[in-house]
Amino acid sequence: VVQGCPARRGTKSISSDQEDANVWVREFDNKIKQKISREEKNTYRKELTAETTVEKGLDELYRDRIFKENDERFRCELCSKMFRAVKFVRKHIDTKHPDQINEIKKKVIEAQYFNNYMSDPNRILPSSQYYV
């Protein structure tokens, strides 16, 4: 039984290993591209729904409403209750003063919806008969 030239057998396995490596690299690149596009979509979604702006507004509310008495004492300026750490004051504001939180969220979301409407190229425009 003739098995072929030994010199050719070696080149065939090298080229198949090379081909396998190329396939792996292509699949890896595709996975990376999918992750990047998913993150871009997620960031775009956060911009449209004002998630990041709400977080910034809440951080500003916390900064304004948390007063540091000394190194280990913090006060809620809405009700003057004392706490040992900032995280406890934040939790307190979230649970005991939701009206403040909802007010901030409402303002930010309304502003974002208006911005989304104004930046929409397909938005409904009023007819010109009203602008005479």
In terms of topology, how is this protein built?
Elements: H1 6-49, H2 51-65, E1 66-70, E2 73-76, E3 82-83, H3 86-96, H4 98-119
Antiparallel strand pairs: 1-2, 2-3
Describe the model:
The protein is mostly helical. The chain is 70% helix and 8% strand. It has four helices and three strands. A three-stranded antiparallel beta sheet has the order 1-2-3. Helix 2 packs antiparallel against helix 4. The longest helix is centred in the N-terminal third of the chain and has 44 residues, at 6-49. The chain is flat, with a radius of gyration of 30 Å. The model has no long low-confidence stretch (mean pLDDT 81).
Quick description:
The chain has 132 residues and is mainly α. Helices cover 70% and strands 8% of the residues. The protein is built from four helices and three strands, in the order H-H-E-E-E-H-H.
User: Strand order across the biggest sheet?
Assistant: 1-2-3
Relative strand content: 5-15%
In this structure, how is the largest beta sheet organized?
3 strands, antiparallel
Shape: flat
Helix content range? 55-70%
Radius of gyration over C-alpha positions, nearest whole angstrom: 30 Å
Q: Please provide the ordered H/E string of secondary-structure elements.
A: HHEEEHH
Distance between the termini: 97 Å
Instruction: Pick out the low-confidence regions.
Output: none
How many H/I helical runs?
4
Total number of beta strands = 3
Average pLDDT, all residues:
81
Given the helix and strand composition, which structural class is it? mainly alpha
